Amino acid sequence: QSVLTQPPSASGTPGQRVTISCSGSSSNIGSNDLYWYQQLPGTAPKLLMYSNNQRPSGVPDRFSGSKSGTSASLAISGLRSEDEADYYCAAWDGSLSGRGWVFGGGTKLTVL
Amino acid sequence: QVQLVQSGAEVKKPGASVKVSCKASGYPFTSYYMHWVRQAPGQGLEWMGIINVSGGTTTYAQKLQGRVTMTRDTSTSTVYMELSSLRSEDTAVYYCARPLYGGNGLDLHYWGQGTLVTVSS
To answer: Could you report the per-residue pLDDT of B35-63, keeping only the tens digit for each?
Structure first.
């Protein structure tokens, strides 16, 4: 069971806006930056968002990130077929039971 | 351009150790941390640890403490991840990954191609 909780699946039609949530606690999301990754089948993960809402060069502005309290979300607008992938959130967890970086369990996005 | 090239696939027996290498090029090697992340078949991502390539200090995931060792060789711009006392649950693709910026954050913009480690009797 992951420290960060994501819905296992999400879906949308081309052109639609979809959001993927990531829920944590005060020891991770509540006090540290949030990161998002996209992983296409059979490939290494790709950094989509860092420092909650910053996009690396090359990531379309259709992708946006937000954080509030102990939850965060990734929004994808103008959904495209190539957005079909697994999405992971991640944050530093400073809890006494195990300090380290933690990932969410991942959300499989299907473009219908 | 930044490149991280990992060593090839490994098959190991339970109880054995494996050492995966990650050769970096295209940037000042000692200016960036390196993380290791693994992914079991059909599963999610798991952070394993980080090495300060400049000083060699490490931080490991608590779950792997005592079994994982990360080192680096600055003469060859290579980082290594060794995992001992292998179990079937360690079967996974292992990635090295470098942050976009020069800190120890998880802004992992550059990834190796992955190394499949299979643990089987």
So the answer is: 999 999 999 999 999 999 999 999 999 99
